[in-house]
Predict the 3D structure of the following.
Amino acid sequence: MRAGHEQYDENIAPYLLGALPELEAQLFERHLETCPDCRLALERLRVAAEALPQAVEPLEPPPELKESLMQTVWAEAETRPGGLPKRHAARSLLGRPLRLGSARAVVATACALAIGVGIGIAVGNGGGGGGHETVSARVDHSRAPSGDATLTLPAGKAGGAILTVHGLPDPGPGRVYEAWVERQGRMHPAGALFSVGSGGSGAAAIPGSLEGAQAIAVTAEPDGGSSQPTQAPLLTVNLS
Amino acid sequence: MLLVQGGDPRAFEVLYDRHGGAAFSLAYRMVGRRAVAEDVVQESFLSIWRSKARYEPERGSVRTWVLGVVHHRAIDALRHHLRHDRRRAEVEGIEERQEARELTDIEAARREQATDVRAALSSLPGEQSRVIELAYYGGFTHTQIAEMLDVATGTVKGRMRLGLEKMRRQLGGDAA
């Protein structure tokens, strides 16, 4: 216990609730740096204070708020050194970045595309032709007991492959599924993040050509995706 | 989060999609006016985008961190720009309230948690829940609360401490 501990101890709860005036809060934070007892007591009570936002009645923010926020964010991103990030760019079939699309929009687009591709296959098969190939995935059933997935590839493995999944578990809070392209034994982000709905179903459009790719893999990653897989693939589609 | 702080607008959009609703709900509960709540949320997320607020994973979840940023912004708005009129939320809230549509599994789980937190809060003696609500949702300092309730600041601080301790136990934080 450090000198002055008693006078600060009673400020732990007001600090967690944001009820200390600015100067008092600064003094308390300075004391915390040197007082393990106060830090311990603070951490014990933090769970209660941090639960308080959950008691608030949920409201829908106006769509204009997101629109305005994203306009500012895109404008600032374009003026930053290095410009917009390219690596995770989700792209439409025409190859343009989906600027206003969230991961959900990408999934929605992919779902729509998947339906279109499905119809294309049916028509193609019925007519004795068909320019697509469907490859089944190998799923880690220890983690996804009822999981299965297929990759629908355009002829010549050109851009616009669609990965459809079923029976996958929810990736968990704050996480999304990310697709990877394996080339020469190395994993590269495929530029496709997706989530799954009820029944573990979902879809993702894989932008770019898959010519020369060995496999497509999927892992669960933190929001926004990762630059390298942080876990073993949940499913793999072999292409070689 | 690294992608957000590295300047990826798409990652930032995912962050907003996941936590914007909770952020707006908290801001509105605190400031009681839609326009001000929107300003608070916009400033909070821009602060995150501009990396002025840094996320430290060891301090908790991304959601907790985002809501902490929003809480600080809302307190700032209350203390510097708004008069504390406790009637405003009740008057405006009824007309403006619009329940969030989304009810995914995660949202359903959050609603269950919300029920637990509300139950924990309402089980406290009135004098304890009152000081906690005035401080956390109202943005009042302990000295302002002491004046309002006509009690000593030490009493206010003590009630806050007792209330949080009880909530912690009710929410299963005994092991901490």
Q: What stands out?
A: Chain B touches chain A through 84 residues (CB under 8 Å). Residues 55 and 65 of chain B are 7 Å apart (CA to CA). Chain B has a mean pLDDT of 80. The longest helix of chain B spans residues 9-31.
